[in-house]
Amino acid sequence: MSDVVIVGAGMAGVQTAVCLREQGWRDGIVLVGDEPHPPYDRPPLSKAVLLGPADAEPDVRFDVDFAALDVQLLLGVRAHALRGADHEVVTDRGVLRYDRLVLATGAFPVPLPGTAGLPGVHLLRTLDDAAALRPVLDARADVVVVGAGWIGAEFATAARQAGCEVTVVEAADRPLAGALPATITGHMRGWYGEAGVRLLTGTAVAALEPGAAVLADGTRLPAAAVVVGIGARPATGWLAGSGVDLGADGAVLADDRLRTTAPDVYAVGDCASFPSARYGERLLIHHWDNAVQGPRTAAANVIGGDEAYDPVPYFWSEQFGRFVQYAGHHTGTDTMLLRGDPGSAAWSAVWLRDGALTALLAVDRPRDLAQARKLIARAAPLDPALTADPAVQLKSA
Ligand code: FAD
């Protein structure tokens, strides 16, 4: 009998357990998670959950029967050390021995320096975080959101829909500055205004006072609540000295088989980066689809397979009444073409490298997204003139 221990009971950990059973693993599976709740899905936390009735339990649980799968679920249990040489995980409830270990500890939101634990300051990662924010929305309170990234935009959307006065403060000169070029994000700025959200860019929250956020220039913004959405870091601090190598970004450095540098230890989801042959660089992906796809490969390799992981990354975001989807991966040196006017209701942007499609961003054009995913997977060459015509279906040259 040999045991697989999975640390982290989010999407990647749960999916690993499910895939192990689907792929024929008959021995023990122990799934350890530090949250007290039955495993649940995170994307609804910044969307429907915030707007649901305050007296009803949000329906975000994974539809997985752990007993039927014979998966031992240890909830409210935190791993705090890994003894790689001994094949042991030290938890706050004792030591777990493993034959194979899968790291799936996800990421934690970066706090605003000096504000952790201050009343009225919120992060948005967990079900408990979302539950703490529901009364803020119910009270239609004045809210300051720090960071105009994906989470900030989604929270601002929900808060505005609930009737809150919302100000988003972004240190960069535009929303999503780290993810997308100015040609695009310049138009996204308008989405905030249309929704009645005040967006202040190129400035930062310097201090928090009771009921207010104070900007670097002294401006006081009324804020019954401050929601911080300035990024996330892999939850890997507990692996120090374990034999599992981490990158400068804190991610577990997995190889293309999702193996780590410690024997019999694998890593999946938000906590790990992997080398992508498709893109010629190491990718750290903090999106749901990666937490669904990676575990299939990891489970196959845990069982003794030899599968490489090299997905076409995908994510979506629902913001300001728009469905935004992105497939692939682009860099600043790829050539960007627009399909349609980014000032209009529906448009896409594509990125080409050496004439082949590497990535696509679609705003309310789900068909473009579906076609692009297949074309990116094939590294299909595209005709730039046809590609730039939104009336023509995306297709290989
Ligand atoms: P997690 O979901 O973070 O799960 C890791 C689990 O491990 C957590 O429960 C954590 O508490 C636990 N853990 C950590 N350390 C330990 C330890 N030492 N011991 C035991 N347990 C531990 N992606 C999209 O593509 N589209 C979206 O619209 C979208 N919306 C999102 C909205 C929100 C509010 C958030 C937070 C994320 C969203 N994402 C979205 C991202 C997506 O949810 C994540 O990529 C995905 O949840 C990652 O899954 P994971 O299992 O790797 O990590």
Provide a concise account of the structure shown.
The chain has 397 residues and is an alpha/beta fold. Helix content is 21%, strand content 29%.
User: Which structural category fits the helices and strands?
Assistant: alpha/beta
Q: Quickly name the level 1 CATH class of the largest domain.
A: Alpha Beta
Estimate nothing, just give the exact number of structural domains.
3
Overall number of strands: 26
How are the strands of the biggest sheet laid out side by side?
Answer: 3-2-1-7-19
What is the averaged pLDDT score?
A: 96
The coarse overall form would be globular
Question: Your description of this structure?
Answer:
The chain has three domains: 176 residues, FAD/NAD(P)-binding domain (3-Layer(bba) Sandwich), CATH 3.50.50.60; 118 residues, 3-Layer(bba) Sandwich (FAD/NAD(P)-binding domain); 67 residues, Enolase-like, domain 1, CATH 3.30.390.30. The radius of gyration is 22 Å and the shape is globular. The model has no long low-confidence stretch (mean pLDDT 96). It contains eight helices and 26 strands. Helix content is 21%, strand content 29%. Helix 1 packs parallel to helix 6. The site of flavin-adenine dinucleotide (FAD) has 36 residues, from helix 1, strand 2, helix 6 and strand 22.
